[in-house]
Design a protein that fits this description.
Layout (H helix, E strand, L loop, with lengths): L4 H12 L13 H14 L9 H13 L7 H6 L3 E4 L2 E4 L5 E3 L12 E2 L9 E6 L5 H10 L6 E3 L5 E3 L6 E2 L9 E6 L8 H6 L7 E2 L3 E2 L2 E2 L3 E2 L3 H18 L19 H4 L5 E4 L15 H8 L1
Parallel strand pairs: 3-7, 5-9, 5-14, 6-9
Antiparallel strand pairs: 1-2, 4-8, 6-7, 10-13, 11-12
């Protein structure tokens, strides 16, 4: 029995998460079948015009390694910024976004788990990196065998190091169902002079904040431009991946200052700080996630 190739490709795309534009086509039709066959022939794959699991994995890998070559004309012409999930482009309302494939991008050198089926994370975990900048953060993570999807640098630049469909090693038992960002912040006030000398200006200082039942020492806070970048990232992730605009709250409706039972048990869908899922962590104590989400709502 002959396979209806157009019908097959529609079903494959729905299951695996690819689009006709990946092969330079506009729709699910005979032209797409030919485009797929031509692409398969170039790679030495049987040119049957069907995007099954093997063809999908090959073009997904090629797409991620050369993501700039696959930019839709609409994005190029409008000079839009985007983040990448499962090889697809999600618009973000922030101009300073740099991908791993760009010459000035940051690449993951630590461990991560490639994931080819559709991953549906329910947590977005926010960290501070305890480093002076995002470049040093990426290096430290690599040396420790860890990874993360995003970094936000001191000037508000968002670096994407890894497709968010892949599993990064940044949140222990929650890696499989989460996306993570490391925001540059060396934490200790002794580093304030370094930021001033580098031209970033003084960081705000967090005083008297409580976390995990204790009052923390005074420590460096995020720059306002980093919070604006984080806000844009939250919004893009919410719209593109469906993570809810929620965070763990206390009885007064403020961002919870200790581990969240629901978030730690993976029953929560929303945006959290690292300390919300681990009693051993204090990042990002003092970050008002609920205030950020209120603005987005």
């Amino acid at each position: 029995m002959a396979i209806d190739k157009v019908f097959y490709n529609e079903g494959s795309a729905a299951k695996l998460g690819w689009e006709p534009e990946w092969f330079g086509a506009d729709d699910f039709d005979d032209k797409l079948v030919k485009k797929i066959a031509d692409w398969q022939k170039k790679l030495g794959i049987t040119p049957d015009g069907l995007c099954g699991p093997t063809t999908y994995r090959r073009i997904y890998a090629e797409r991620l390694s050369n993501i700039d070559d696959f930019l839709p004309k609409s994005i190029k012409e409008k000079d839009e910024a985007f983040i990448v999930h499962k090889g697809n482009f999600i618009p973000i309302e922030w101009k300073k976004v740099v991908l791993w494939s760009e010459s000035d991008g940051l690449k993951t050198t630590g461990k991560y788990k490639p994931f080819f089926d559709e991953r549906k994370p329910n947590l977005f975990v926010t960290h501070w990196d305890a480093c002076l900048d995002s470049e040093s953060c990426a290096k430290v993570l690599g040396k420790r065998g860890l990874s993360v999807h995003f970094c936000i640098d001191n000037d508000g630049t968002i670096y994407q190091l890894l497709d968010t469909n892949h599993i990064a090693y940044h949140a222990g038992n929650h890696n499989g169902n989460s996306i993570g960002v490391e925001i540059s912040n060396a934490y200790y006030t002794k580093y304030q002079d370094w930021y001033v000398k580098k031209g970033f200006g003084e960081r705000p200082v967090v005083r008297g904040v409580k976390c995990q039942g204790s009052t923390l020492e005074d420590h460096l806070d995020f720059y306002p431009i980093q919070i604006e970048a984080l806000k844009a990232l939250y919004k893009a992730v919410h719209k593109g991946m469906g993570i809810q605009l929620k965070c763990p709250l206390d009885s007064d409706g403020k961002t919870l200052d200790k581990v969240s039972t629901a978030a730690a048990a993976n029953r929560f869908n929303g945006f959290v700080s690292h300390y919300h899922i681990s009693k051993k962590k204090i990042d990002c104590a003092g970050l008002d996630i609920e205030g950020i989400l209120n603005e987005l709502r």
